[in-house]
């Protein structure tokens, strides 16, 4: 397993993160457990901020909280001087409860409800990223009722779609998000927005994909956004102050992955903006980005306890852990791959190939196929790395399994930042209708 951040194997042969022995974390908090290397999260934040500072451009780095949104994480983002991107009332509520400054919050989403818009306007958030024509009119109307001028970006679908190792440029992108550049919807939305009296159009936004390992897609998106900005300035005299190029910066999940350093992505983006706007004598806009995975992904590790195993001679050996698709649905959803070690025997040489299964009643509930490990025993601790992004965030209670707790570790200290769910959480919202026969509890 690739050792990220402060992770190392200590003198007892145990995996240690943030100066804390993971076997001690298991003894204290139980398993499954999400462990975050706080120093690595902060390092990733600083890599973005420092790279933008080096560019000399004005900027905002807005953490895409969808990747992992809990109050302690919002505090880190605030302390690191970044902004925050939310996509629902729940994420907004989490940020506000954590005391995150509302004026640094950006609200995304292709179907914001009236309640969400009202909540965000009342909280005086920094900006809405408007996704479609209905939202544009709705937002203008609600802002008018509340006598507020609301800052917006327009989400443009630029016809650039990027995947891990490739990007494609299409004439017209088939996407539920944003105003399409190719068919003229983007230009019409800009014209319309610039005339709506309760909205202040700051600029345009694009997001070309996630887990991207190359800079070419970002360069192309910057070029297309600049061309649109220039056209808009010439045709209707509107000058954008902000260009937001979204998130999508790739991370190393497994040793073979080859993400670029954050500074390389940022330099490609800022150079492309300088070139394309500078060439057209356009006042250099602020550059905003929205990294999610690249802030928290490799800082997260999930600890499990090994339970049962099943050896099918000549076929494979299944080793089951006390979590699975409920705490990490990514292998089932995307065939995502992960690496893992036995945290309590991390120096031992691998002697067998096993496949790690979850405990859900679902054949697809597999975490890792064909993993090399020393002979695995019941009670061993399995540490799966790079589970910081879209794991806790997408966790579920399938099979009524309680969601695990989350711990931040740093400089030899561990802090519980999310408690493990309780059985009361599991049944807390259930109601037995009065018309059903009432019986006393059996537990
Ligand atoms: C609009 C937008 N911004 C930011 C992100 C964050 O992406 P990532 O976690 O890949 O950086 C996403 C998710 O892909 C997104 O849809
Ligand atoms: N949830 C996805 C990424 C979605 C990105 C959000 N727009 C993942 O786990 O990789």
UniProtKB/TrEMBL annotation:
Pathway assignment: Amino-acid biosynthesis; L-lysine biosynthesis via DAP pathway; L-lysine from DL-2,6-diaminopimelate: step 1/1
Swiss-Prot/TrEMBL keywords: Amino-acid biosynthesis, Decarboxylase, Lyase, Lysine biosynthesis, Pyridoxal phosphate
**Modified residue N6-(pyridoxal phosphate)lysine is at which positions?**
66
Residues annotated as domain Orn/DAP/Arg decarboxylase 2 N-terminal: 40-296
- Which residues of this UniProt protein bind substrate? 293, 330, 334, 362, 390
Under the heading CDD domains, the entry gives: PLPDE_III_DapDC
Q: Which residues bind pyridoxal 5'-phosphate?
A: 248, 290-293, 390
Any GO MF annotation of the entry: diaminopimelate decarboxylase activity
The UniProt gene name for this protein comes to lysA
> Which Pfam families does the entry link to?
Orn_Arg_deC_N (PF02784)
Which reactions is this enzyme annotated as catalysing? meso-2,6-diaminopimelate + H(+) = L-lysine + CO2
Q: Which cofactors?
A: pyridoxal 5'-phosphate
**Top EC class, one word:** lyase
Entry function: Specifically catalyzes the decarboxylation of meso-diaminopimelate (meso-DAP) to L-lysine.
Which protein is depicted? Diaminopimelate decarboxylase
Q: How does it assemble?
A: Homodimer.
Q: Which domain of life is it from?
A: Bacteria
Q: What EC number(s) are associated with this protein in UniProt?
A: 4.1.1.20
Please report which protein family the annotation says this sequence is part of: Belongs to the Orn/Lys/Arg decarboxylase class-II family. LysA subfamily.
